[in-house]
Amino acid sequence: MPKMVHRRVLLGSGLSFAVLGALGGCKGRDPDAPAAKQGKAISIAVAIENDIQTLDPTNLSDPHTSRIVWQLYEGLVGLNEDGSLRPVLAESWTHSDDFKRWSFKIRDGVNFHRSGTTSGSRTLTAADVVFSYQRFAKGFGSFVFSGLVAGFDDFVNAKSTAVSGFTAADPRSFVIDLLRPDPSFLYRISSPYLGVMQREVVEAAGDAFGVSVAAGTGPFRLISRTSNEVVLARNDAYWGSRAGNIDQVVFRVEKSAQLRMSQAEAGTYDIAQVPSTHASRYFEGATLRPEFAAKMEAYLAKTYNVHYLGIDNRQLGDVHLRKAIAQSVDKSAIARSVLRGMADPASGPFPPYMLAIGNAEALPFDLQASKRELAMSGKRPKNLSLLATAGGSDELVAQLVQSNLRAIGIDVSIELTDFNSLISRVFGAKRPPLFLLHSEWIFGAPELLLDVFDSRKYPNPNMFAYSSPSVDAEISSAQALYERAAINSRTLKITARANADAPAVWLYHEFTPYLLTRRVKGFSVNQHQHWKLANVTVT
């Protein structure tokens, strides 16, 4: 057996480790909900911009719904607000000298939420982690472990009945065996997206799991769900500390930005994200305008996100054509005119503040260079379509991209749809040649985002079908690095190399502004877009 070494500092960064919350569930209205029990529950209302996708983290792909799900589920580790790691359901861990075995001590005394599908709650064990992580093999997030965890790919391909690299040595010991060294592994699992579920509830609920049933360990539990509303209640048996006093959270879908913001102004919603199309009404730069500051509070979040113009490299395989597209897009103008200063132009998939990596080298906006690349391509595509989400900033960005491309002689038609349909199209058989999308990264370190360039990671997160054997080789050679400065340096070089092929156009990293009623105190959001509602106090 390899020698095990306990590390409280990783990657030369002086970071300590951690993460977040979980799910509990029932069908219909819970008679033990605080409002029914007390008659005067402390409740807040939260506006959600998109249809509620699923409350099952295994199949979650919508960052809007994640705000709900991550109140219910928790992972082994997570991020503090400064991006450093912290323990959650794992109270400690060790790794082997070669970074191929990671062993986690499961926190004692953590209980799942009560569920209407079982006789009652029970204590979390390492077997639940094995079950949950194996469920991700068949879900949207299989890319997290694909090609890395021993036996994972065989399980995905139905060549085995279990993932050999996930084992529960005893009720409080969970072990992961990897196929190669991965010093950054903890940052792969730092998002509550990798939430731990209760096996009996998942199996008993069947298709109802994630719809009307949930079973996690987080600070809130599921009370009810309709097509446009989810109600959560305080988990009084929660294992962790909580500074807040909220008994109930009501998440309500309101797709109309105009109506959503007018209701936020009226106090109907205690928390509402401000769409970029409305930011100038409420903010002067990053400061709330005086006429609103008297009655509302503001919060500005910087998360690990990127907005991009995706290019299907199989449909648009000519590198000169892709470079022509990339150099025609004026990112600064988009950030300035559409985002109104609430974004930084992007040069890669990672924001520069992710573990202080800085900006990568990317193809600059240059119309003359763009026209030269188009001439070298010898191709002027016809009937090129750009798929984007209807309404909000994406529709405006699509129009600017369309105008930029027209300036070099490429005509593009815009097709608008809802966000969930866009996701289905991008990951489906009829992929659009161009698409506008954004990613809220579940990884906590920039080197892990090199997967977007890795041909072995198609279609997720390399949704562009980009393929370069030399880039693949460079990514593989960098995976054994463990000093933060060396990792960041190599990551920037690999990103610059891939950017030269224009697999996509990295547009901007958006800041996320929120309006809060003045009675809401202590609201915060970490880099994984995890709302820490357990710490919110209503005065």
**What fraction of the residues are assigned to beta strands by DSSP?**
15-25%
The overall pLDDT average reads: 90
CATH class of the largest domain, named Alpha Beta
* Number of DSSP helical runs: 16
Low-pLDDT segments, ≥5 res: 1-37
Structural class, by secondary structure, is alpha+beta
How would you sum up this structure, described in words?
By secondary structure, the chain is an alpha+beta fold. The chain has helices spanning about 35-40, 65-70, 125-135, 150-155, 185-190, 200-205, 255-265, 280, 290-295, 320-330, 330-335, 365-375, 390-405, 420-425, 470-480, 485-500; strands at about 5, 45-50, 75-80, 85, 90-95, 100-105, 165-170, 175, 220-225, 230-235, 250-255, 270-275, 285, 285-290, 295-300, 305-310, 345, 385-390, 410-415, 435-440, 505-515, 520, 535-539. The longest helix has 16 residues, at about 390-405. The radius of gyration is 23 Å and the shape is globular. The protein starts with a strand and ends with a strand. The model is unreliable at about 1-35 (pLDDT under 50).
